[in-house]
User: Fold this.
Amino acid sequence: MNRNRINGIYAITPETEDTDRLVAKVAAAIAGGIRLIQYRNKKGSAQLRRYQCEALFECVQAVNATLIINDDWQLAADVRAHGVHLGRDDAAVARARRVLGPGKIIGVSCYNDLVRAREQEQAGADYVAFGSFFPSATKPDAVAAPLDLLSDARSRLKVPVVAIGGIDRYNAPALLEAGADAIAVLSALFSVEDVEQEARAFARLSAQRNLQFQNESENRYVKQ
Assistant:
């Protein structure tokens, strides 16, 4: 059930000290159809991050959306978030699982490394993320990931595959077509004036791809 939540548009929050503005932007994204949110704030104080996470948790709970916390598994546990996303320098999956329990989601950044992704899947990760697929303002020095990595990962892994890095409405279809279960967006969603409208546009892309995938699966079944 947890893995099924990793699908469609995966919104990553911008860093800000203005909690009211942050919650308003996330609420607008949810109103536009997005149900998967990652809280990311690497510069804020521990007190601020906890306060913002608690506010976001209330926001997502009202609509049965999913809140993932970037990096900090202890914060995820403290605010009862739905899971945590771990990078290379964060805690191991096993340690996070011991604290969070079996019912929580654990995702892992795998950059452009399919071997790492397979290792993390075996360690118990619920999903893996690859990227950067395009130049990213958030992480300008991120390693580049080739598009065919998504199709390779889709054929070799059982867990959902997330694409990240410089994604907007215009390059997102190629990632979905290549095999991404979810696409992570930050600037392309939260830097626009009308977040709700942009979220609706992203959600339509995901819905169209899901429908296409369903039709392709049904056609293969009929041919068999």
